[in-house]
Amino acid sequence: MSGSNKRRSKKAGLSPGTLIHIGEKKKEKVTIKVIDYDEARFEEREVKDIEECFSFKSGPTITWINIDGLHEVEIIEKIGKQFSLHPLLQEDILNTDQRPKVEDHGTHIFIVLKTLSYDDNKKEIRIEQVSIVLGATFVISFYEGEGDIFNLIQKRIRNTIGRHRKMGADYLAYTLIDAIVDHYFFVLELLGERIEFLEEALVANPKPTTLQEIHKLKRELIFLRKSVWPLREVVSILERGESPLIQSAMMVFLRDVYDHTIQIIDSIETFRDIVSGMLDIYLSSLSNKMNEVMKVLTVIATIFIPLTFIVGVYGMNFKYMPELEKPWGYFMVWGVIILVALGMLTYFRKKKWL
Amino acid sequence: MSGSNKRRSKKAGLSPGTLIHIGEKKKEKVTIKVIDYDEARFEEREVKDIEECFSFKSGPTITWINIDGLHEVEIIEKIGKQFSLHPLLQEDILNTDQRPKVEDHGTHIFIVLKTLSYDDNKKEIRIEQVSIVLGATFVISFYEGEGDIFNLIQKRIRNTIGRHRKMGADYLAYTLIDAIVDHYFFVLELLGERIEFLEEALVANPKPTTLQEIHKLKRELIFLRKSVWPLREVVSILERGESPLIQSAMMVFLRDVYDHTIQIIDSIETFRDIVSGMLDIYLSSLSNKMNEVMKVLTVIATIFIPLTFIVGVYGMNFKYMPELEKPWGYFMVWGVIILVALGMLTYFRKKKWL
Amino acid sequence: MSGSNKRRSKKAGLSPGTLIHIGEKKKEKVTIKVIDYDEARFEEREVKDIEECFSFKSGPTITWINIDGLHEVEIIEKIGKQFSLHPLLQEDILNTDQRPKVEDHGTHIFIVLKTLSYDDNKKEIRIEQVSIVLGATFVISFYEGEGDIFNLIQKRIRNTIGRHRKMGADYLAYTLIDAIVDHYFFVLELLGERIEFLEEALVANPKPTTLQEIHKLKRELIFLRKSVWPLREVVSILERGESPLIQSAMMVFLRDVYDHTIQIIDSIETFRDIVSGMLDIYLSSLSNKMNEVMKVLTVIATIFIPLTFIVGVYGMNFKYMPELEKPWGYFMVWGVIILVALGMLTYFRKKKWL
Amino acid sequence: MSGSNKRRSKKAGLSPGTLIHIGEKKKEKVTIKVIDYDEARFEEREVKDIEECFSFKSGPTITWINIDGLHEVEIIEKIGKQFSLHPLLQEDILNTDQRPKVEDHGTHIFIVLKTLSYDDNKKEIRIEQVSIVLGATFVISFYEGEGDIFNLIQKRIRNTIGRHRKMGADYLAYTLIDAIVDHYFFVLELLGERIEFLEEALVANPKPTTLQEIHKLKRELIFLRKSVWPLREVVSILERGESPLIQSAMMVFLRDVYDHTIQIIDSIETFRDIVSGMLDIYLSSLSNKMNEVMKVLTVIATIFIPLTFIVGVYGMNFKYMPELEKPWGYFMVWGVIILVALGMLTYFRKKKWL
Amino acid sequence: MSGSNKRRSKKAGLSPGTLIHIGEKKKEKVTIKVIDYDEARFEEREVKDIEECFSFKSGPTITWINIDGLHEVEIIEKIGKQFSLHPLLQEDILNTDQRPKVEDHGTHIFIVLKTLSYDDNKKEIRIEQVSIVLGATFVISFYEGEGDIFNLIQKRIRNTIGRHRKMGADYLAYTLIDAIVDHYFFVLELLGERIEFLEEALVANPKPTTLQEIHKLKRELIFLRKSVWPLREVVSILERGESPLIQSAMMVFLRDVYDHTIQIIDSIETFRDIVSGMLDIYLSSLSNKMNEVMKVLTVIATIFIPLTFIVGVYGMNFKYMPELEKPWGYFMVWGVIILVALGMLTYFRKKKWL
User: Fold this and answer.
1) What value of ipTM does the predicted structure carry?
2) Between chains, do C324 and B308 touch, taking CB under 8 Å as contact?
3) CATH code given to domain E8-284
């Protein structure tokens, strides 16, 4: 699970508001894209220099600046100056070890979220950070990785027919959040499948690797939970609608997102319950196997150890052993052996060990 | 347990409010029934085309439209247009992976609930979704499956004598909720019986399949809990009576339903406590069995291994072994054998292993 | 534990407010007793027909109607009509599967409680339901079983000297609740004794039946808890004193009952903690026993198996085995045997297995 | 742990407010001491008859009546009459099975607390009850046992220099509470030492008695917790300062006591966490030991059982066994034996069992 | 873990407000440093006598007095008199067994915090106490140990360019708190590394020392948690900004610290979850190992014990044993032996034990 060991400590002792990128450098180059639109107008441009975006800032059209990659600190600094973002806010954008949160700064709202995706190569869940700054007529989104999570939204905006072009910046911010939350369901379904697969493996043939799988799943759920619980709070604060930047018509949409986050939390808690139940099953099946092994050993040993004793008796070399002389001696011993063996078997059958 | 693996992810990336049916198609054809009544009048009709219902909408009589089956998206769309339901509300009706909730939309209240029933064929609990839209003079209910849960209510309305015909749409919605909640008790009783049965099996003869039964029960309780906890919230919000659509005379009825949901939650929590105790019992009884097996092995081995050694000694072929020549040698060995065996037995008796 | 498997489901589908007795029929005949008193006057009568009580209703004297046995539905119906009790309230009286609760109906307060008693025959805790309707000048109590829990209160009322006769209906209701709560302490003390007894058994000689006893205790505590937690809420609501039916002078008495319920809850939680600790002790002592058994087996087997090998060597029939010819061969073998045995014993002593 | 099995049930059925002493009689005679002081004046007297105290009641000086021993019910009754204490309050003083609590009776505040001390003879924690009645110019303290917890306070009052003589009755009550809470730290430190001692024993040599020690500690913590949690509530209510009997200058002192109670609760919860971790350690070390025992058995048995088979083969008495005739037969067998043994040892070394 | 066994009890019975140093004496001499600055002016001096500082108190410049070492009680007393600190506040500074807290005393705010650092020599986390008194123009900090945690802040103040010199005493207090909280991340990262290291050890080769490591980690997390949870409360109270000593411009900074404390708590809870999961893994892997050991024993014993019996049979010395005379007898026995062995191996393969 990525996202768990970022070097936060390198900031210790620095003055508050010092800008340092904390996190892995996930892509080579920072990509900046600006989309400017209203119902009538649409302009989309990929820019090299962040200053090119600033001309779009004024005017009544909605401006969306999307930045993929966070390791070039100066870009954040320039945007910060242009849009008068608080130094601590800029610091938070760069620090990818943030907890999801929302902050109302009056002229803009600052939202930090985590995206979930499944890395097919590393076979693990990838958690990445998205920061969104929502102003009256602009939205700036900062994305840690090189993702395509917002491509469908861009497509919808390009399309003149949809609702999107008639709505304000708050609706744009909502669609970004909605897209992120919708991706959670995808990861949850993958987890659900892995859990079902593991449960079948548990019943069919529990192995030490099954245990490690369970443990890995448990850890992933711990980290997922850490990302999702504060998300609920974030959406709940937005939904309460205390900022004039969010119009009251948005409430029904935000309530819908809120319902989704509750559902996601529900699912994670359910998964946790199921996974911790699986551990009990695993331990029980270990005990069961041990019992079975012990029974086999006990049955075999308990039957043959006394028999070996009996034949040992007549292997002794005493000069005077009356039975040895008798012609029926050997057959009598076989008789005793068979009787003892049958007796033991009956006993074990009664005990239900066989 | 059905209801746990619906393909929610197929909506990811779509524009909010896009209508897609999420869930299994549980029946072949969608059935639409309309009942229109007041104290004097009663009309009941099964319609093929949803438009036939809309004539009943106006007028002071209570109109109940009941729709079984959700996979025909256009029906929901037409109703949505006619009754001016918000696109997100329509989306929620179609998405059978909803959490129970209540939403006040001013001119109507939207309620999502889960029904519980026991599927005798699959031997599992079936969770299905019912959505209810309550307006001033109409109730529209959407049911995922092909159930008979509302048949008794229809019968009561047909009957002119009962209280039902004198009451408003809010009372009708209440009776629908009440009928759903009453069915929960039925499922809880079945679970209670299975738990008692398992407890007896645990004491009598615990087997690996018992463990799997316990695990299955535990999972079912996890899913039940997920359905029932939000139900409490739903009824509690309705009972607070902040909507003018619900008259104050309904409060005592809704409080009654609320008491029932609390009782159901209580029972589920109690079941969870009992079932998790059963796992401890199972593990302990495994340990007990292992102990018993080990004792048998130990008693047999500990008695016969030393004896086999003794007889082994006199099986050696040394030329000079004084005891072998003595006529009493053989009998002396038997004496030693018997003494050792008795000593061991006494020791085991003292240890309470026998 | 009685009280856990009542057939609530037989009500499913019936119109709300339909009167059906849910629960066991615990006594043959319903007994109705009416006591009418004020400071100067006292009348006590056992009546056959409920109508005889109604004459006492009017007038300023306090009237207490006590009904033991709930299976005659008409009695409840008649009382309901006479005292204008809501149909759902009547339903609740008959349904002995209620959760303790309090409802303020304006002219009367409805209280549902559970009594605890210990059934010496069945060796289990009996949970029964008492419903109390408190009006301005009357108290009606409905008791599921055939108990004597209120006998001492009747005696105190008969007695002209006590405080009881000077006080109102609210004080009478309080004394009923107080008597019920006081009985809880009795059951808790019995449980406390059983727990202490079990703890001693655990240390002295843990057996599978001890485990079953622990499990039974655990289940009883689960059910007790389910009865007692809502009781706290009930008394707390009464104590808040929002109803004009309860005079402010009652507050100090109700606070006292409230303190008792908190104490009872505390004790039950403490018992739960102790009992769940006992299970750990039991499992540990099983493991300890197993360890002991294994050590005995290992010591015996580890000493004698190598020795048996040694004597086996000289039991071989090779023609050319030089040691066999030597006169000291036999004694040398004994020497080796004794050395090996002593070495093993020293090793085990060092390992602290002996 | 004393304090857990008081006969509360003997009050069941009695009229509320009936005075009965519940608890052990901890000392022979009840001792009554009265201290009357203001800044200028100081009088201290041990009285035989409670009436002697009542003359001090009037007047502006602070009067502290301290009663050690609760089994003489009449003393409480007389005080109750003199200071107009509610019958239920008197009942609570006598009932030493109370939960810590505070009650504001207008003209006086009633506080119930638990003292902790360590009984060196019985090697257990002793929990005893102190009730304090705080009026405008008087404090009455009732102590269940024969303690010296308040001696230092008396000494401080005798001393004319200290702050104590200038302060009111509320400060006196505060010092009593502070003295009681300070004693908790003493008991916590003793527990802390026992825990450390046990932890070392666990690592060095876990024995069944270690388990019993852990269990005892766990039980003591359960009972401590039951005493301390309500204490926090008591001090918190006092600190909120809603009663005119407590001057606002006291707030900072009461906040200090409140901080101490929080710290005590923190320590108890920490101890609980540590102790429950110890149980896991104990169980793991049992499993470890078992593993070690099993390995020894397995190594010995696995090496010698095949060898015994080999020598058994050549102990057979067949007439035609070619190897027996060969002069190199015996040495060849020894060669095989040594090879097998070495092979097994190599295998075990690879498995890291040796 | 230091900080867990301070002798708090030596205060029991003393008058409240008596000044006694509780804690270890961590350094030889108390060091006092005073820094006095505003935007224009900067003075820094290490003083021997605390009185030298008091001249800085008056005047509009910000005065920071930093005291390292708490064992000289008179220093605290003199400061207390000079800055009119409440006796209980002075007591709290000296008592290093405090819980983090904040107290508003009107003219000054008193803050108690814990610093975390990792002691490389003792290989354990060191918890030390810092008390901060924040007035209108002064900050006094008391530090238990001899640390360098505030060196970087002093350097930043010396530097005329930074923001620091323009800000008030509240900003100085904030930077102190921020520095302390930033150090927490450092300790958390160390813990995170140890956890990862342990997890790998668990999978590769679990040993009893691994268990002790887990247990140690668990204990450290328990103590960390005890230090960090109240910290959240402290910062939350400061952030609410009810004191005029903290200007509203500070809110955004304090909110930032608050976010950090939440993140720290999150991490600790996550670590706790992971560590408690590791214990389960450890126990399971013990069981797995035991299973493996048992299988080896069972396979070997189950194959050879019957074979030893067979050869034992033909080691008997009966005069009349027909097989012994046959020339094919010996080879037949070998045949039987090989057949039995193969049968057993097939059985074990089928059981998946091999």
Assistant:
1) 0.78
2) no
3) 3.30.460.20
